User: Fold this.
Amino acid sequence: MIGYVTLGTNDLARAAQFYDAIASELGTGRMMEFDSFIAWGTPGGGAGIGMTKPFDGNAATVGNGVMVALNAKDEAQVQKLYDIALANGGTCEGPPGPRGDGFYAAYFRDPDGNKLNAFLMG
Assistant:
């Protein structure tokens, strides 16, 4: 249902470093790039993620209650994505662990404060 998600950034170079590392672990890379926008994903694959400087020229801000969830293949990859996020300027919002029946996740923010999680269901 979702084609892609775009988040705002005030420092595209810093965001690129963070998302290049996350995308690499997920087996994908950049698929589109402009001066103010980069998108990661696989053409014809699942939903991708983009980072952009806001079109209106104002500062990017974080949406309260907004979160992007990254589907991991197993618990080890949840841990790895969490570690990659923190090693690339991200901050912890909840370490990897079970979050109820059949749901395992880690929560973190990117360097701009956008909230993400890596999760496994089932």
